[in-house]
């Protein structure tokens, strides 16, 4: 197990009304680790991802980030969220701002950087995701893959301790999936701590340190990708893999 | 026809009175409506409750009754202000309930993910609202806010019944002087048209400038 835990979930339970969506979740993500969460729709994997920065509240259990329990509300919670970047399935770039402004906005509002400094950092990051020449466009003028790369740059601009990816490629055309995955691979190699909810098994195999398989709100398996893909223990995981790896 | 030329200063005073009421009450209504809309979407339950109560009470009270309550009620509690200021308070608070609801419906047109993205970056509720959600909501509320302010301009006529100088009230002076009542009202109506058409032109411009830039 991880030597230096960064994200710790302990006995986490979440309900939507009567629906029990997360059941006694225990998960530790070490610093620098890449954990890929897979599972069928409705298994709770996106919800799990969203509880880590408290976009979803939980009913019981504890979540710690770098040893600190998640604050309930207010400034302390905002401060914590700045430490955990998030990349959404629907990109969620600010529609009324240019690409550059998208990446700079929170740097100025949250990190109190001056505009020139924030913009310099933004351009650096846009360069890194290969979009420097699109800095002055509006999000709607970019392709999905480009938008998602901007979203990654926007999250990186806060210098987060960890990044959460909530199905980052699920809304993309196959061609664009690759360009986004390449950026993510690069981050993984650089040692960024990442929790990635995805259906991209190739990414799980090549970039993940661990694969977490969820079903019905529970973590069913939590193993290395080699073990998981070549020799799944549970019937549920075998069934899942046989369906998705057939094609 | 000579009603206007003979009584230009009376009309002018009334017209200015209505303009003043409209402008001051609009500013108050916009500021309060903005605040109440923020309250109604705030993460704090007591603020949401206050915003909801504010809208429910003010939106469901007849404006005339509200004028009575403010102009006759507040002095009983020792708050004595010029009648014009009372009228601005009554009109502004009343209209703020409608502005609040227009803004809130605009906020609801902004996709949920926009706010989530802002919050996930560590922006506070206030920053999320002011830098991300409201600028996008603003575009879809230009037209309904315009309509609400036009209604405000016309509602200001009620202030005349409480001896505040405004446009409609000029008819009393003029009919006492024996002028033709029809022409008196035609010129009053024209005065209101000038004000309301100006408001609509202003909002039309705003819509052209910001409404579609997406």
From TrEMBL, chain A:
Domain named ABC transporter is located at: 7-241
Q: What is the superkingdom listed in this entry's lineage?
A: Bacteria
Membrane topology designation: Peripheral membrane protein
**What does the UniProt keyword field contain?**
Amino-acid transport, ATP-binding, Cell membrane, Membrane, Nucleotide-binding, Transport
Instruction: Identify the main location.
Output: membrane
Q: Where in the cell is it found?
A: Cell membrane
> Which Pfam families does this one have?
ABC_tran
**One term under GO cellular component:** plasma membrane
Family note: Belongs to the ABC transporter superfamily.
Q: What is this protein called?
A: ABC-type polar-amino-acid transporter
Q: What broad taxonomic lineage does this protein's source fall under?
A: Bacteria, Bacillati, Actinomycetota, Actinomycetes, Kitasatosporales
From TrEMBL, chain B:
- Transmembrane parts of this sequence: 15-37, 49-74, 80-100, 181-205
UniProt-annotated location(s): Cell membrane
Q: Which GO terms describe its molecular function?
A: transmembrane transporter activity
Listed A to Z, the keywords are:
Amino-acid transport, Cell membrane, Membrane, Transmembrane, Transmembrane helix, Transport
- Domain ABC transmembrane type-1, chain residue ranges per copy: 15-203
Gene Ontology cellular component list: ATP-binding cassette (ABC) transporter complex
InterPro entries given for it?
A: AA_ABC_transptr_permease_3TM, ArtM/GltK/GlnP/TcyL/YhdX-like, MetI-like, MetI-like_sf
Pfam families for the chain: BPD_transp_1
Q: GO biological process annotations for this chain's record?
A: amino acid transport
Family that this chain belongs to? Belongs to the binding-protein-dependent transport system permease family. HisMQ subfamily.
The protein's name in its UniProt record? Amino acid ABC transporter permease
Annotated organism of origin: Streptomyces albidoflavus
């Amino acid at each position: 197990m991880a030597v230096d835990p960064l994200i710790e979930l302990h006995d986490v339970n979440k309900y939507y009304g009567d629906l029990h969506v997360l059941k006694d979740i225990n998960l530790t993500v070490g610093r620098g680790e890449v954990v890929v969460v897979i599972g069928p729709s409705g298994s709770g994997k996106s919800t799990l991802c969203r509880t880590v920065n408290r976009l979803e509240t939980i009913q019981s259990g504890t979540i710690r980030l770098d040893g600190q329990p998640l604050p309930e509300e207010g400034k302390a919670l905002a401060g914590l969220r700045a430490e955990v970047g998030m990349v959404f399935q629907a990109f969620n770039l600010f529609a009324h701002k240019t690409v550059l402004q998208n990446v700079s906005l929170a740097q100025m509002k949250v990190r109190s950087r001056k505009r020139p400094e924030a913009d310099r950092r933004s351009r650096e990051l846009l360069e890194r995701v290969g979009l420097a020449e699109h800095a002055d466009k509006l999000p709607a003028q970019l392709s999905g893959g480009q938008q998602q790369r901007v979203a990654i740059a926007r999250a990186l601009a806060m210098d987060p301790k960890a990044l959460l990816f909530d199905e980052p490629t699920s809304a993309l055309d196959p061609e664009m999936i690759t360009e986004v995955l390449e950026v993510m691979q690069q981050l993984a190699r650089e040692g960024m701590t990442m929790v990635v909810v995805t259906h991209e098994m190739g990414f799980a195999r090549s970039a993940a340190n661990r694969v977490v398989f969820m079903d019905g709100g529970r973590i069913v398996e939590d193993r290395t990708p080699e073990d998981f893909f070549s020799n799944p223990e549970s019937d549920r995981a075998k069934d899942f893999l046989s369906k998705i790896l057939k094609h | 026809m000579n009603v206007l030329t003979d009584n230009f200063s009376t009309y002018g005073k009334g017209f200015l009175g209505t303009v003043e009421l409209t402008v001051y009450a609009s500013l108050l209504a916009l500021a309060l409506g903005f605040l109440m809309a923020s309250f109604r979407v705030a993460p704090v339950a007591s603020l949401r409750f206050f915003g909801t109560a504010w809208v429910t009470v003010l939106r469901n009270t007849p404006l005339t009754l509200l004028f009575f309550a403010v102009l006759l009620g507040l002095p009983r509690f020792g708050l004595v202000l010029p009648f014009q200021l009372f009228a601005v308070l009554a009109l502004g608070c009343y209209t703020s309930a409608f502005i609040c609801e227009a803004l809130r419906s605009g906020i609801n047109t902004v996709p949920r993910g926009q706010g989530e993205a802002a919050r996930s970056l560590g922006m506070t509720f206030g920053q999320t609202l002011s830098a991300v959600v409201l600028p996008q909501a603003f575009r879809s509320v230009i037209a309904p806010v315009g309509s609400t302010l036009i209604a405000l301009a016309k509602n200001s006529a009620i202030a005349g019944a409480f001896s505040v100088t405004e446009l409609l009230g000029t008819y009393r002076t003029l009919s006492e002087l024996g002028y033709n009542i029809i022409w008196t009202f035609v010129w009053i109506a024209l005065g209101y048209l000038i004000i309301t058409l100006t408001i609509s032109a202003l909002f039309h411009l705003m819509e052209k400038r910001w409404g579609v830039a997406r």
